[in-house]
From TrEMBL:
Gene3D superfamilies per the UniProt record, alphabetical: 3.60.21.10
Domain Calcineurin-like phosphoesterase: 1-208
Family: Belongs to the metallophosphoesterase superfamily. YfcE family.
Domain of life per record: Bacteria
GO cellular component, one term: cytoplasm
InterPro entries: Ap4A_hydrolase, Calcineurin-like_PHP_lpxH, Metallo-depent_PP-like, Pesterase_MJ0912
GO MF assignments: phosphatase activity
Protein name from the UniProt record: Metallophosphoesterase
Length: 247
């Protein structure tokens, strides 16, 4: 079975449409959505509808910290321009859409995989996986062969051997990475709507559980239009500049 992995759409309709079209052309059996569907971008209502439609079709979806913050209020550390963006977003999503975001779980299992937005060891605390140490904590917190997380906005891949030795790979877009069954893995596909590795192209990944392979993808999209929509909406210009530079 082949899974498409989308994370951190962040209300970016242009990026989401481009990645969705690319994934359909590549072919997959089931979609996995790793959270943060709203905030930063100009189309929160549209992206929630997109997620709702995919879930109705059988997609796996978990809740992200920005989804949570739109419903319950800003978390610790969310201030300044992020608070402005959250307030703007909250005024443009319906009560039904908020209820949908609130209903999403923090983690979800499928096959021998686990999906979480931030991490698997303390998903409600929204801590980042900055490196091997945090990746190991998440892998030790579950028996899943493969853990998928978002939150970092940069494509990353970590592994843990049977002897407890951790390592990481630098993923190359479009190149399938074999995932040895002798190791356990934690993959971060990167952000669809807010890449932050210096490349403005949208990120996602494809996992083939029959071939035991993972392919990271980059999809150029009209980030100029997405940025212009942010400015026209009156959102902080910093959020438009990020799309130009992928930072």
């Amino acid at each position: 079975m082949k899974f498409a992995l989308f994370s951190d759409l962040h209300a970016n309709r242009q990026a989401t449409e481009a990645v969705w079209e690319h994934a359909q052309a590549e072919g997959f059996d089931r979609l996995v959505l790793l959270g943060d569907y709203v905030d930063y971008g100009a189309d929160p209502g549209w992206t929630i509808e997109f997620v709702q439609q995919r879930v109705a079709e059988g997609a796996v979806a978990v809740r992200g910290n920005h989804d949570d913050a739109v419903v319950v209020g800003a978390h610790e550390g969310m201030h300044g321009q992020v608070q402005l963006s959250l307030n703007w977003t909250r005024q443009r999503v319906s009560a039904e859409q908020c209820a949908f975001l609130s209903s999403l779980p923090l983690m979800a299992s499928f096959g021998d995989c686990l999906a979480a937005h931030a991490n698997a060891h303390a998903p409600a605390e929204w801590g980042y996986i900055h490196g091997r140490m945090e990746a190991m904590r998440s892998l030790y917190a579950t028996e899943a062969h493969l853990v998928f997380c978002g939150h970092m906005h940069e494509p990353r891949l970590y592994h843990l051997s049977g002897t407890g030795k951790a390592g990481e790979f630098e993923p190359v877009p479009g190149v399938a990475i074999p995932l040895s069954r002798a190791r356990r893995w934690l993959a971060i596909p990167g952000s669809v709507g807010q890449p932050r590795d210096g490349n403005p192209a949208a990120c996602y990944a494809l996992y083939d559980d029959e071939q035991d392979s993972l392919t990271f993808q980059r999809v150029p999209y009209d980030h100029e239009e997405a940025a212009q929509r942010i400015i026209q909406a009156g959102l902080p210009e910093m959020m438009a500049h990020r799309l130009h530079h992928g930072r």
